[in-house]
Amino acid sequence: MKEQVLHLLKKQQSEFVSGELICKNLGVSRTAVWKHIQALRAEGYEIVSQPRAGYRLAGVPDRLYPQEILSGLKTEFMGRRIFYFAQAPSTNVLARELALAGAPDGALVVAEEQTGGRGRLGRGWFSPAGKGIWCSLILYPPVNPAAAPPLTMLTAVAVARAVRLVAGLAPGIKWPNDLLLEGKKICGILTEMSAEMERINYLIIGTGINVNIENFPGEIANAATSLKACAGRTVSRVELLQAYLQEMEQLYRIWIKEGFAPVLKLWKDLCVTLQRPVRVSSLKESIEGWAEDVDEEGNLVLRLADGTVRHITAGEVSLRPF
Ligand code: ATP
């Protein structure tokens, strides 16, 4: 009901909507309308009320509220069910619990702030309140678990395309899962999966996008940047998240129907760490070589100085161009 009141106010844009019209449209009393208006105000919506004229929407808060994301979202299942948190330890952790409780395919978990945001290999992810998109998608892809790893690369393509559409910036992809602008990280992706031999129970794709962050803590200040810093303007988080969900649905469908090849082609066009010297480090070793290509499963094809070729799986390594 609250959402319907908001919808009516939005439809009139900056004009007044009479209390009577809202009552008639929704079939509720004046007191009920007043209560919903108060609830919306408590969420940060600026609503002017004027005797006889009614209510007017004067401002929408910079929040990733489900009603904002859903309004105008052009997807069929991606992000159609939204779990919103003002604060979360980690959206991936909550997504896991929600998946186990039966959340639908494409459900989105989004938080304004993560207090224990995670990167790969147990690293932390800086996720300050209201400044980024910290979210996780819950998916149940009907594929063999062995076919799932490319989904991380597919997600990188979706984010890159969304950033281009909404912020007018062109991020490059660093194999396998980071998006860079001006050589610094603007997005990290963390995919986690629960599977049996032949089937995936659920898959969670966490993305952290640095949208309007102005200052990064010392230890990552040199390696991280935000869309705002690169575009020189505040970027709408709601629009970016909608674009991400739309791109994601489109690419996901292509992947399910046609396999990874068409998505990999798009990924390669965006990749900035191929055809150059790189260092690949894992806990065990650090090897240098020429990043020749990515094979059809998304592994890095690394040519070493002695001419031998290694196919490196994304799982446990970090890559640095040098
Ligand atoms: P790398 O390629 O940098 O070795 P990775 O791809 O293995 O890292 P991720 O899981 O994507 O790692 O990100 C975790 C790392 O990113 C952290 O160790 C930290 O250095 C850095 N980091 C943390 N928060 C942010 C942020 N908001 N923006 C950019 N980088 C961040």
- Structure ligands: adenosine-5'-triphosphate
The stretches of 5 or more residues where confidence is low (pLDDT under 50) are none
- Summarize the amount of helix as a percent range: 25-40%
Gross geometry: elongated
| Largest sheet geometry | 7 strands, mixed
How does this structure look, described?
There is one protein chain. This protein has 322 residues and is of the alpha+beta class. Helices cover 31% and strands 28% of the residues. It is built from 9 helices and 14 strands. The longest helix has 22 residues, at 237-258. The model has no long low-confidence stretch (mean pLDDT 95).
Give keywords.
elongated, 322 residues, binds adenosine-5'-triphosphate, 31% helix, single chain, seven-stranded mixed β-sheet, 9 helices, five-stranded antiparallel β-sheet, alpha+beta
Secondary structure layout:
Elements (H helix, E strand, L loop, with lengths): L1 H10 L7 H8 L3 H13 L3 E5 L3 E6 L6 H5 L11 E7 L2 H10 L6 E8 L17 E8 L10 H18 L4 E3 L3 E4 L2 E12 L4 E11 L16 H5 L5 H22 L2 H10 L6 E5 L4 E9 L5 E4 L5 E4 L5 E4 L1
Parallel strand pairs: 3-4
Antiparallel strand pairs: 1-2, 4-5, 5-9, 6-7, 7-8, 8-9, 10-11, 10-14, 11-12, 12-13
This protein binds adenosine-5'-triphosphate.
Quick take:
The protein is α+β, with helices and mostly antiparallel strands and 322 residues long. The protein has helices at 2-11, 19-26, 30-42, 66-70, 91-100, 150-167, 227-231, 237-258, 261-270, and strands spanning 46-50, 54-59, 82-88, 107-114, 132-139, 172-174, 178-181, 184-195, 200-210, 277-281, 286-294, 300-303, 309-312, 318-321.
